[in-house]
């Protein structure tokens, strides 16, 4: 089955508080997005689709030239939310019977084994969403009090999130809902079962400045 990867990098990175959107910041001396795209290209034969903010496409082209970086990929402009950006990426998937992995451009430490495992399990189950158990205790917050929850009943959800293309195409016909924080929520809303796949604690999402500092420590360290 043909494989596609949609790398969503259409956000502005407001929580990072950086003038340059976080997907272009340097990690181990090269832009975060180069790490992410290279990880997918190294994993398995697939078609790479990169979703970027409209006002950053020329910056991306300049970065590629400056770094003499030539990994084949298609670029499409993103939308107002992650949901809309994924939807734009989906328009470039032409094969009706394929597997699609959607991944945050700002998760550059994703490994080939995590990517391939998600594709393989999506082939078996129709969906495969990387997730990890919680390490901390959690409490539910009410208006005047708070109380403990059983952390074994929860998982932290990551990307890659891989699906049969037919499922994704159907699910993304939905109108946008505010609880669509990832693709799993969109597919579940459309009635599809979500299979959780083994995630990786190192597969962190660069959201705030300390995440980038942590990624600098972890990058290239396969032994941890
Ligand atoms: N309209 C959007 C919003 C987000 N994303 C992408 O979805 C991934 C996860 O989103 P997040 O970490 O929230 O990125 P931002 O939206 O850029 O960050 P913030 O919420 O802090 O503004 C990122 O790779 C981001 O670029 C996207 O493609 N299109
Ligand atoms: C898709 C995601 O990374 C899964 O954990 C997450 O939902 C993205 O959330 P964000 O608020 O857009 O960073």
UniProtKB/TrEMBL annotation:
Q: Which is an annotated GO molecular function term of this record? A: nucleotidyltransferase activity
* Extent of the signal sequence: none
| Pathway entry | Isoprenoid biosynthesis; isopentenyl diphosphate biosynthesis via DXP pathway; isopentenyl diphosphate from 1-deoxy-D-xylulose 5-phosphate: step 2/6
The keyword Nucleotidyltransferase belongs to this UniProt entry's keyword annotation: yes
| Alphabetical list of SUPFAM superfamilies matching this protein | Nucleotide-diphospho-sugar transferases (SSF53448)
The record, for InterPro entries, names: IspD, IspD/TarI, IspD/TarI_cytidylyltransf_bact, Nucleotide-diphossugar_trans
EC number, as in UniProt: 2.7.7.60
Q: Where is the site labelled Transition state stabilizer?
A: 15, 22
Main role?
Catalyzes the formation of 4-diphosphocytidyl-2-C-methyl-D-erythritol from CTP and 2-C-methyl-D-erythritol 4-phosphate (MEP).
Protein family membership: Belongs to the IspD/TarI cytidylyltransferase family. IspD subfamily.
| Name of the protein | 2-C-methyl-D-erythritol 4-phosphate cytidylyltransferase
């Amino acid at each position: 089955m043909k494989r596609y990867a949609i790398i969503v990098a259409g956000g502005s990175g407001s929580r990072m508080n950086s003038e340059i959107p976080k997907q272009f910041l340097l990690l181990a001396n090269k832009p975060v997005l180069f790490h992410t795209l290279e990880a997918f290209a190294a994993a398995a034969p697939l078609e790479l689709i990169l979703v970027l903010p409209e006002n950053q496409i020329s910056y991306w082209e300049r970065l590629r030239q400056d770094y003499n970086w030539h990994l084949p990929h298609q670029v499409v402009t993103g939308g107002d939310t992650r949901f809309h950006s994924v939807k734009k990426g989906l328009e470039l998937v032409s094969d009706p019977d394929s597997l699609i992995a959607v991944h945050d451009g700002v998760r550059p430490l994703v490994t080939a084994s995590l990517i391939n495992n998600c594709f393989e399990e999506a082939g078996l189950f129709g969906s495969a969403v990387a997730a990890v158990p919680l390490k901390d205790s959690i409490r539910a917050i009410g208006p005047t009090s708070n109380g403990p929850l059983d952390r074994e009943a929860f998982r932290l959800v990551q990307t890659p999130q891989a699906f049969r293309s037919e499922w994704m195409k159907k699910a993304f016909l939905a109108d946008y809902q505010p609880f669509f924080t990832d693709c799993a929520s969109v597919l579940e809303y459309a009635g599809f079962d979500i299979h959780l796949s083994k995630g990786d604690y190192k597969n962190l999402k660069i959201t705030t400045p300390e995440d980038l500092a942590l990624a600098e420590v972890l990058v290239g360290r396969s032994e941890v």
